[in-house]
Batch of 2 targets.
Target 1
Amino acid sequence: MWRGTDVLDEDALSELRLTPDKSRAYGGHADQVVDFLLPGGGAGSGGGQGGEGKALVVLLHGGFWRPAYDRQHTALLARALADEGYLVAVPEYRRTTGWPEIFDDVAVCVESLPMMTAALGFRPNRTVLVGHSAGGHLALWAAARHRLPAGSPWRTESRPDAVVSLAGCASLRLADEWRLGGGAAHDMMGGSVDALASRYADCDPAAQLPLGVPVTLVHGVDDVVVPVTMSREYARMAREAGEEVRLVELPDMEHYGLIDPSSSAWPHVRSALEA
């Protein structure tokens, strides 16, 4: 599926489609939808049968917050997780205008998931947010919302049981300062961190530390899309804030291998979910 280092093979990707067992809308826009993959392909689950005790994995896709990438490129990982026995939710979110719609959608979607999973006959015993690349930023941010100011429309008292960031843009400030993705954070937020410090603070999980949620960061050392220094810096800031963070660095691993269950990263992704 991968053509050389950090290059997505578009021809192979075009043959892969995320085929959900169920889909549910959380808003009126076409992108406000969640695809569900049931454990083991749905056998023996749903309708209240076999739905107790399954862990829910919420898989947030990356793509530097831009419309060019949608949830389809997580198809292989999503199906592999379902085959491992997880109930998998793959949200889509609006990406055309960026801030604040992306954050509105992630907040509403995550808050809606308990009702959605119950309607499918599942009551998960734990919830893990997993995000790749820009999705790693969104997963960490969703887990940090209880740290937002009381007046924030995104604030919540709920939080997941854990977060797994796969080559995540864990610090929005650094994503802007390093101009990752050709200035993707600048484009999504509507300006630079210097010009919009308060806006960035509300949307940056690194600015909300400590999260009070177990975090595992998995990052390839050979990643040239989101350098491993990003996860190292987030881990350093988290530890300085008194938080325990697990950082797993994978040698000879690039960016997209972390969402490819045929790569050598797969056992580490499974281990992070089980930790």
Target 2
Amino acid sequence: MKKRYVFPFAMLITMVMVACGGSKEESSEEMDSMEVSESSEAESRPSPLEVKEGQIAGKAFKVQYGSPAVKGRTVWGDLVPYNVVWRTGANEATFVDLSEDMTVEGQSLKAGKYSLFTIPKESGTWTVIFNSEWDLEHGHFQYDEKQDVLRVEVTPSWEESSQERLAIDIEEPGLVIRWEKLKLPISIQ
């Protein structure tokens, strides 16, 4: 039984000695190295993490999402199926952070953080969903409709030019999603 504790105890003593023996400069260098590796990890993601902050109707607004690329693929109806909940980005769930109560497509949405999902459709309006579970590691795989706070219908438009990477921008009329030839303007006030 005693042998079981010898190795972990020896490791703990070694870690304490190393930690106490290092200078502040070494610790700072280690921290800088950790920050560089974390930022290079984020930069090396196939779908880079994007954070946009701004104001809508004078109120602070933030959106965070993974930005996938088209890469020659058929996006709508294939990579992103029609009539199925989509995390509106890549990797973890896209989320928005409202500093104050706002209206989305004329409906009230209280201040707070919400995951943002959409249901793309081959024709007609798309459903835009604000869900109370905003911190989902695996996006739509963890989506729970029971946690929906607001669902609105939004009319997409299709542009001539194609945008390679998904972009979600804070601009008129509130929030605009663009990817491939899609433009999905969500009215927020």
